[in-house]
Amino acid sequence: MTSQLRFPTLTASLLAITLASAASAQTETMPIAGAATSTELTGTVTIVNQEKRMLTIETSDGRFEVLHVPPAVKRLDEIKIGNRLTITETEALLVDLKKGSGAGTIGMSQNITAERDPGTKPSGAIVDTATISGRVESVDKAGSTVTIQGPNRAVTLKVEDPALLDSLAVGDGVEASYMRVISGKVEFQ
């Protein structure tokens, strides 16, 4: 299977989000690619269904959006019809190259946390982080591809910037960290 993987320049906003795990003294970690996007949804609460953990908001352009509220959100009962709700979703990806004796470990981990902001208004964030570790199986500089063995299968990726392949060697570790942050705040009316 061949997939297209783009390696854009690290953005300042991505650097502000700490995704990479701490490297051991025997392993050198080098960020090689990253990207981040953020979207915002704001509207007035029109329906609160606490049993089904759902909110409906009306946006300024008249659209109705139904939001499923995860159990990690503890103050759903404080949100009322007429409140103004702003939800921001940020997705970030960081790809690291690992060299040294601790490199090339294959695995996957996931962590979900909820952080409540202090104050009288319901607000906070849910952070979902997944990290997949793989090992470089082959590098094809002429074809501008790299094959990586992951936890479930090997995948061949097309590399947009062939110069990145100069730093790769068979046996190197590759770690892709994906973070999704959903934050929200309520303004009482």
UniProtKB/TrEMBL annotation:
Record keywords, A-Z: Signal
Name of the featured protein: Copper-binding protein
Signal peptide (residue range): 1-25
Keyword check for Signal: yes
